[in-house]
Amino acid sequence: MKKGFFITFEGGEGAGKSTQISLLASYLREKHSKEVVCTREPGGTIGAEEIRNLLVKGGQDRWDKLTELLLFSAARRDHLVKKILPTVQSGNIILSDRYADSTIAYQCFGYGFNETVYRQAELLYQLIADDFYPNLTIILDIDVQKGLERSKKRAGNDEQRFEDMDLSFHQNLKDGFLFLSRKYPQRYAVIDANRSIEEIHQDIIIVVRERLGL
Question: pTM for the complete prediction?
Answer without folding.
Answer: 0.92
